[in-house]
Design goal:
Arc Repressor Mutant, subunit A, 2 domains, three-stranded antiparallel beta sheet, globular, 232 residues, mainly alpha, 72% helix
Length: 232
């Protein structure tokens, strides 16, 4: 099933972090994990390095690796950027509607629906399908750097989103959110689709953030808009 031992180790680590078995802040020692899983430390070290790019693992200078902590300010910062950039990217794609885009969106949604049926047993597969669906929605935006930033930010919100599932109607409720989002994006009302994506992202902050987080994020976004308008 796995191409390399590194791939296997990455999947094991991600599954245990996403599922909560390895709690935020837990130290991750390659040698200890290797002994527990009866493998060489080398693939564990490589897998830990890979997971730093997703935000699941954090390298602490002179102290090694640990499961990345969940920090309120990080939530506000990352979601503030997502709410600023991702709807902008979606609008660019919806206005262009490049050839084959609708087919790609429907295909990725079908795969996401199948992944929902297996969740939460395989959270890694679910996250892969979830990322592919959102990438299909905005991945045709003309601004290549914009889509790269959006994908990076989305990867760093994984644990926040999974925390919010039970507060959003469970897995069935979250699947229905994505179905409505797909239908809106395939429709003719660009403004309505962009607004729905904004709400889809914002609801995680409502679910797992602190009181006032949403208002603070929206105020920042509105300030950016006012500044941009003043310069135009």
């Amino acid at each position: 099933m796995w191409t390399t031992r590194i791939d296997w180790a990455e999947h094991e680590l991600a599954t245990r972090i996403l599922g909560g078995e390895l709690a935020p802040g837990t130290k991750l020692k390659a040698q200890d994990l290797a002994e527990a899983w009866d493998v060489s430390p080398t693939p564990i070290r490589e897998a830990l390095q890979r997971l730093t790019a997703t935000g699941l693992v954090e390298a602490v200078p002179n102290r090694g690796m640990r499961v990345a902590p969940i920090v309120a300010e990080e939530l506000r910062e990352v979601y503030g950027l997502r709410l600023l950039l991702e709807p902008f990217a979606l609008r660019a794609t919806l206005e262009a509607r490049p050839p084959g885009w609708e087919v790609e969106v429907n295909r990725s949604f079908d795969e996401l629906e199948a992944a929902f049926a297996r969740a939460p047993a395989d959270l890694v597969a679910f996250e892969s399908a979830h990322a592919a669906f959102h990438k299909a929605l905005v991945g045709r935006a003309a601004e290549t750097w914009l889509t790269r930033f959006v994908e990076t930010l989305r990867a760093h919100t994984t644990r926040y989103r999974l925390q919010s599932v039970s507060l959003r109607g469970g897995w069935d409720g979250v699947l229905e959110e994505h179905r409505r989002l797909r239908d809106a994006c395939l429709g003719d009302d660009v403004d309505a689709a962009v607004a729905m994506l904004f709400e889809h992202i914002r609801v995680t902050v409502d679910a797992v953030g602190e009181p006032g987080d949403v208002e603070q994020i929206v105020e920042r976004i509105e300030a950016v808009g006012r500044h941009a308008h003043a310069l135009s």
